[in-house]
Structure formats: structure tokens, C-alpha cells
């Protein structure tokens, strides 16, 4: 019986990982599709497409999936995808910023508003909370054979604001204006990031007790599961105590 329970646990974990992987692929496919519609299907002349393809490779997306997304972007009859953002307060006043890519704005805003209402939050007006976040370039790079000191000097020259090393991965943060410079620098020194994106980093964070924080994270999880949602940012402090409880 214990063997059966163990297998059930393994299946549940695998299902969760597969769902997460599917969500990541879905985000990247939308990024590729929009990039192609904006500036064509040649990555050499389309920086956004080049970045999306790099992120796809970093996520181990099969080549055929990448090509299918490029083809979809090139299809004039395919549904038009629009990028939109939403801002609101979660439980206990935590700021939540949502980035979406959708083919139906009415459906998306209706869903996002319903999530906030159901889980103790309130959707606000665009611009009401964006001042709480800074847009930053964030790069994740496997250490591999990189010589740290030389590498860091190259990155500082390209505008790196912060460089951290966590086990086998460098995380580099830049100002939004230096995002393109960093991409060019990495190409020049033949370093391929595992992921690279513009993210919204909170200027300060709010600390809640564990039970209150869990309510906020429940809302964030529900929003992230929506097929139209690309990214969710918040200013909840993820303390060591909270992470242990989770």
C-alpha cells in the first residue's frame, strides 16, 4: 500500500511539474508570436524574437515548438494577440501587478477582476500602483566554465547594477535602459543566458504574518494559472519563515 501511495505522490508531483512546464512554454510561444508579428521572422533583424528564442532554448523547448510559434506569428489569419497590464491590491494591501497577453480583452479583464474579488483583493486603475515597482533587466546565467572575476568586470562595463551567485547560477540585474547593452555584451563574449527578461522589481516590500501571507500567495497562484497571464509581480516580502512554512 505504501508503494501505491508513493507512486501517487510521484504522479502528483510530475503532474505539477508538467503543468508548470506547459505554462512556461505557453508564455514563450506568445512572446515569439508577438515578436514575429511586430518585426518579422528573422531573429538576426528582430531583437525581441532573438530574445524569445533564447528563452525558449533556456527552458528546453523543442525546436519544432519554436518553429511552430514562428509560423503562427507569420500567419496573417491567426488571432491577434494584445499585451495588457492590470494593477490591484491583494489581501492586507499587498500590491499586485499583472502582465497579460490575450486575444480577448473582455474575457481577460473579467477573469482578473473576478480573482481579485473572490480572494480578498480589489482591482485598481492602471497606473495606480506601477510607481511601487522599478522595471529592471534580469538575466539568469549558468556558471559552467565562466571565470567569475573576469566575467563580472565585463558585466559591470555593460551596466550591471547587481551580480549575485547562487550555487550554479549568476543572476544579473540592470536598469531597463541597459537591457539591450547587456544582451549585446553577452553575445560578444559568447555567453547564452538561461533566461533574460524585463521584470518589475518592488522598490520596497511588505512583511505579513504567515497566515496573512498565505492568503496573498493563494490569490497570486490563482492569477498565475490563467492562460492569458504572462507574469505576476508583488511587493510581499518572502521571508525565511514564510518559505519554510510553504
Polypeptide structure, described:
The chain has 246 residues and is an alpha+beta fold. It has eight helices and eight strands, in the order αααββαββαββαβαβα. The strands form two sheets. It has a four-stranded antiparallel beta sheet. A four-stranded antiparallel beta sheet has the order 5-6-4-7. It is globular.
Question: What's the topology here?
Answer:
Blueprint lengths: L1 H38 L7 H12 L4 H12 L7 E8 L5 E8 L2 H14 L3 E2 L9 E10 L5 H10 L2 E7 L2 E7 L3 H10 L6 E8 L7 H16 L3 E6 L5 H6 L1
Antiparallel strand pairs: 1-2, 1-3, 2-8, 4-6, 4-7, 5-6
Helix pairs in contact: 1-2, 1-3
Give a short overview.
By secondary structure, this protein is of the alpha+beta class. The protein has helices at 2-39, 47-58, 63-74, 105-118, 148-157, 179-188, 210-225, 240-245; strands at 82-89, 95-102, 122-123, 133-142, 160-166, 169-175, 195-202, 229-234. It has 3 domains: 2-74, Arc Repressor Mutant, subunit A (Orthogonal Bundle), CATH 1.10.10; 82-130 and 206-245, Alpha-Beta Plaits (2-Layer Sandwich), CATH 3.30.70.980; 132-202, Alpha-Beta Plaits (2-Layer Sandwich).
In CATH, what is the class of the largest domain? Alpha Beta
CATH architecture term of the largest domain: 2-Layer Sandwich
Number of strands: 8
Alpha-carbon distance between the two ends = 27 Å
Task: Name the CATH homologous superfamily of the largest domain.
Answer: YebC, transcriptional regulation domain
Q: Give the CATH topology of the largest domain.
A: Alpha-Beta Plaits
> What is the arithmetic mean of pLDDT?
89
Enumerate how many helices there are, as a single number. 8
Q: Give me the strand/helix succession.
A: HHHEEHEEHEEHEHEH
Main sheet, how many strands, which sense, barrel?
4 strands, antiparallel
Shape label: globular
User: How many structural domains can be distinguished in the coordinates?
Assistant: 3
Low-confidence stretches: 1-15
Strand content: 15-25%
Report the C-alpha radius of gyration, rounded.
Answer: 20 Å
Structural class by secondary-structure content: alpha+beta
Q: Strand arrangement, largest sheet?
A: 3-1-2-8
Helix content: 40-55%
Amino acid at each position: 500500500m505504501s508503494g501505491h501511495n508513493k507512486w501517487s505522490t510521484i504522479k502528483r508531483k510530475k503532474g505539477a511539474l508538467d503543468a508548470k512546464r506547459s505554462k512556461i512554454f505557453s508564455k514563450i510561444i506568445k512572446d515569439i508570436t508577438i515578436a514575429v508579428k511586430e518585426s518579422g521572422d528573422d531573429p538576426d533583424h528582430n531583437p525581441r524574437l532573438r530574445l524569445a528564442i533564447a528563452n525558449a532554448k533556456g527552458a528546453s523547448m523543442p525546436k519544432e515548438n519554436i518553429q511552430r510559434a514562428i509560423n503562427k506569428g507569420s500567419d496573417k489569419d491567426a488571432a491577434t494577440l494584445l499585451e495588457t497590464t492590470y494593477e490591484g491590491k491583494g489581501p492586507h494591501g499587498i500590491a499586485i501587478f499583472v502582465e497579460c497577453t490575450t486575444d480577448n480583452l473582455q474575457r481577460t479583464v473579467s477573469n482578473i477582476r473576478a480573482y481579485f474579488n473572490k480572494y480578498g483583493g480589489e482591482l485598481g486603475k492602471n497606473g495606480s500602483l506601477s510607481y511601487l515597482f522599478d522595471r529592471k533587466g534580469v538575466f539568469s546565467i549558468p556558471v559552467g566554465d565562466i571565470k567569475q572575476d573576469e566575467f563580472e568586470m565585463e558585466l559591470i562595463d555593460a551596466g550591471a547594477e547587481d551580480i549575485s551567485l547562487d550555487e550554479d547560477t549568476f543572476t544579473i540585474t540592470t536598469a531597463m535602459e541597459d537591457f539591450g547593452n547587456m544582451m549585446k555584451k553577452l553575445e560578444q563574449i559568447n555567453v547564452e543566458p538561461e533566461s533574460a527578461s524585463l521584470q518589475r522589481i518592488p522598490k520596497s516590500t511588505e512583511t505579513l504574518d504567515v497566515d496573512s501571507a498565505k492568503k496573498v500567495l493563494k490569490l497570486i497562484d490563482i492569477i498565475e494559472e490563467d492562460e492569458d497571464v504572462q507574469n505576476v509581480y508583488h511587493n510581499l516580502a518572502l521571508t525565511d519563515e514564510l518559505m519554510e512554512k510553504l
